[in-house]
Amino acid sequence: MFNRWAYLDFAGVAPIPQIAVDAATLALEAQALDAIVSVDDTEAAIEELREDVARFVGATAEEIAFVRNTTEGLGWVANGLGLGAGDRVVVAGDDFPSAVLPWTNLAARGVDVDVVARRGPGVVLDDLVAAVGGGKPPALVALTWVHYATGWRTDLGEIVRACHERGSLVCADVIQGVGVMPLDLHATGVDFAAADGHKWLCSVEGQGFLYVRHSVLDRLQVLEPGWNSVVQRGQWEDLAWTPDPGARRLEGGTPTRVALAALLASLHLLASTGSERIWDRVRDLTNRVVAGVHDAGMNLLTARDPAHASGIVTFSHPRMRAEDLGALLRSRGVVVAAPRGGGVRVSPHFVCNEDDVDALLEALPR
Ligand SMILES: Cc1ncc(COP(=O)(O)O)c(C=O)c1O
Fold this sequence. Notes:
Blueprint: E1 6-7, H1 18-34, H2 36-57, E2 64-67, H3 70-80, E3 88-92, H4 97-104, E4 112-116, H5 125-133, E5 140-144, H6 156-165, E6 169-173, H7 185-188, E7 192-196, E8 208-212, H8 257-273, H9 275-295, E9 299-300, E10 313-316, H10 322-331, E11 334-335, E12 337-340, E13 343-346, H11 354-363
Parallel strand pairs: 1-11, 3-4, 3-5, 5-6, 6-7
Antiparallel strand pairs: 2-8, 7-8, 9-10, 10-13, 12-13
Bound molecules: pyridoxal-5'-phosphate.
The site of pyridoxal-5'-phosphate has 13 residues, from helix 3 and helix 4.
């Protein structure tokens, strides 16, 4: 239980753990007291965070750039590949706007954009593979790892294998999975992945990361070059374009140190708990939700095939509108998201417990 709530909306915005609040507060105080003097000290902490993020997602530090949010990361990829007339992109549709619009927007530059429709709770892998195989090989295929509304998880490794066979790059929005399920980006082979910290990573809003597989980094133009993009950062009179060898070259300007401090603390909490343990716990809690809402006569909208399961369970009430049910639950102390995917979305993290789930089940009108 979080303060007064049975809080079950980690797919929305996570409550921030106290250690992250403390870390951010310390960073703020350091700037208040020492300003530039404290800035030099935090450089090492930022690079430690880059290492930690990389370790957490199965990457190397050189493959991680810090971004303001998922949308910025996806935009750097969509706009940095130099795509134009004659290029084709395939996008998994019926998904969160930020996972679709950066790609459909490329049509204005003459890119041929094929949107693959969702069948049921998620885009079916066979449909995506068929779209990749039909017509000109796409320059890139874009999708989400986990669907924001239904929780449908796509096997990233499988889609990457099919795409790489055709020479197509793959960009994944991983915000609805990273932090709750183990993720090994190198093992998936995905070329680009982006997420923000404010959901399953349990950190503040407006601080995320972009992963760029090392071998494709040079294919990405640096859209916003600045002092932080170059090897000789801090040598203010050297204006040569000598890009940082890693994805840090994409960052350009001053990082948000306060937000990075929070993310570092939250990530330590998650990493020390362990991704497998977190996922085991969340699987138990979501199974309890599934069984309970089924017994209460709700309609389950989430696929329960383990291959597609995630931390999200969505259901609808047989007679009540989702927004009304969401408001009623909120008035009874239970936080969920509604409407989502035609129902109410429940997304517990490992810090939730059975009492939170039972509070939801007891609050459901029959
Ligand atoms: C799939 C997906 N992508 C992106 C976002 C958020 O994007 P950003 O981090 O740019 O705010 C959300 C938030 O709900 C999401 O569910």
